[in-house]
Amino acid sequence: MPDSSPPPPAPTADIGTPPRRPVRSFVLRGGRMGTGQQRALAELGPRFVLPYQPSPLALPQVFGRQAPCILEIGFGMGDATAQVAAAMPGHDFIGVEVHEAGVGALLKRIGEGGLANLRIVQHDAVEVLRDMVVPGTLAGVHLWFPDPWHKKRHHKRRIVQPAFVALVASRLAPGGYLHCATDWQPYAEQMLEVLAAEPALRNTAEGYAPKPAWRPQTKFETRGLKLGHGVWDLLFQRPPADAA
Ligand SMILES: C[S@@+](CC[C@H](N)C(=O)[O-])C[C@H]1O[C@@H](n2cnc3c(N)ncnc32)[C@H](O)[C@@H]1O
């Protein structure tokens, strides 16, 4: 996982495009930006925000070095993202978030912490994975507390679906991992079922994984804990090349 040495990139088959649905979030929708976040957007955005592009990113050029890269989907206000990037200076991070106030908040943290190993893409993470990430290259993908969409009629909006998991698996390097967490038990059960059914991944635990010590408590998780929710972590891995 994060402490393991970077596996060599290996090409994998492109599994195509998961069915698209509008990106919606009921949690941060309508959030407003403070002046510090607006200033960070204006001053740091040009350097740290990568525009969406329909072609793969050259990561060594983006970060100016060769290092294992971890992509986070839906970082919210970015508190946990910044903490992990600061704790793991040997890794590079790409945070993907659609919500502009979150982008401003994380940029502010990048400035405060001098986090040279972190970049942001403000776009739909499915399209970023599909279009901007070379297959077989990511050391890890973090999906921490995606929108749970409690109502049954909204379950189709949940990001964890078979085609999405196949897309993530195709972008992982051998030995790369997908780490999901949720505070909503029915979604945790869906995640476990969908991830276990993806042939390119294997569970590193028996069922749910213990919360890794390196995963910070996120803002959304804190909110759930205050409401008395439980937390479920799932840690799946693309087998290393010699074990495949
Ligand atoms: C429930 S919040 C959790 C935020 C953060 N991970 C946390 O734990 O505090 C989910 C976040 O995912 C973002 N999001 C939802 N769908 C997305 C997508 N397709 N691409 C990028 N971000 C997305 C939302 O804007 C929202 O900020």
TrEMBL record:
PANTHER family: 3-DEOXY-D-MANNO-OCTULOSONIC-ACID TRANSFERASE/TRNA GUANINE-N 7 - -METHYLTRANSFERASE, PENTACOTRIPEPTIDE-REPEAT REGION OF PRORP DOMAIN-CONTAINING PROTEIN. Signal peptide: none annotated. GO terms for molecular function: tRNA (guanine(46)-N7)-methyltransferase activity. This is tRNA (guanine-N(7)-)-methyltransferase. The gene is trmB. Catalyzes the formation of N(7)-methylguanine at position 46 (m7G46) in tRNA. It is an enzyme of class 2 (transferase). It comes from Rubrivivax albus. Residues 1-22 are annotated as: Disordered. It catalyses: guanosine(46) in tRNA + S-adenosyl-L-methionine = N(7)-methylguanosine(46) in tRNA + S-adenosyl-L-homocysteine.
